[in-house]
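Progress narrative, work stream C.
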Amino acid sequence: MENGIFTLREAQQFAEDAGLDLVEIASQADPPVCKVIDYKKFLYEQKRKQKEIKANATKVIVKEIRFGPQTDDHDFQFKLNHAKNFLDEGAKVKAYVFFKGRSILFADQGEMLLLKFAQELEEYGKVENLPKLEGKRMTMMIGPKKKK
């Protein structure tokens, strides 16, 4: 292959002789830039690169943990252990207290529960959103700590 400026007919002849395709790379340039390559192979490699980039992208996993406003200590510890495992795996934890009926009167208990939960998980993750009441749910997000 030679570099240089050729007529369209010459460039097509080069490609035909090599058994490859003539592909326009930069149409805005003057004269337009073309390359003699196997187009199917080029498309395949582009697709493979895109797939590799997608595979290497980190996927954010959010695990949910549900509490009631009067969750007892045993259930709290059980859910706390699950949250520790989730954070160690690199997932985010969305902890929420669900209020049924009149239990919304205990919103302050729910907030205390979530703050206690965040305090227990301090060495495993950091609080991204403080407890916030949204309808019948009080939610809080905890993200994993970066590993050194």
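Work stream C, second folded protein:
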Amino acid sequence: MNWITITIIGYTLLAVEAVMSKYILAGRMKGWRLYTFYVGLFSLFTLVLSPFGLKWGGTIPFLITFFSGIIFYISLGFLFSALLRSSTERVYTLQGASITLLTLLFSFLLLGEIVYLSKIIAIVLLVIGGFFISFKFYRGRFFSGWQKVIIAALLSSVSLIMLKYSYNGQSFITGYVFNRMGIFSGALLSLAVPAFRREILNNWKKKSVSQNTINLAGTIIAKTIAGIAMLLINYGIYLGSVSVVCALVSVQYLLTFAFVFGLSFYFRKIFVQHMTWQNIFSKIVGIALITAGTILVFL
């Protein structure tokens, strides 16, 4: 199996995870807080990596890494809140474009990276692509929750920059585990917020033990799939070309769109699709522009 096939499998799994998250959120839990909480708790399993290189790298690197995890957990709340009410392909495609764009800008402003003409063009393509994905031409307005997606991407970018900086003073395993512990701690701290805690408790009380078990199991399966996907994509980067791997992100976006389109015939209330040429055309154009912009960023 060559590295391109491995990468495509990785992006396919990410598309599957995106659809599963939407189904669990809108079809079963009907609340983003519980799903976010479960994802945060699942981060605890990262401790199994501890024997493979977890070492104390100092107080400052630890704090940076730990708080980057808490910030990332908050970003998940905004992302899943938007996903609950909006279409899967719009949310994840806009998030991907926004993270790429914001990380590029932060790298220039904070890390002093040189911005070449290709990256300026990439910024323009990402912005235009984001507009095509976000704007509902058949209704003349942006999709519901697009602001939350932007906030989620902003927080995620800040978290990534912090994590990248913390790796200068500690090993990969150490940084990764402490980051996940920050996410887990964010889940526990979220229980201190009355509205958050109330919805989680009410969700547990309203559903039977078997329903809660299925929801938790579904969350674990979805996030395990996402973890395997990222492992395959990173392995593809290790074996082959970074720019080609990043270009193949279009596979994820297009498959997410295809999966949602197919499932909309069976789960109309969850995967809502408006079968108008403006809607389909704008999504395809947006995906194409965002893919082109992503390729230019990594060239």
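Residues 209-239 form the longest helix (31 residues). No further action is required on this item.
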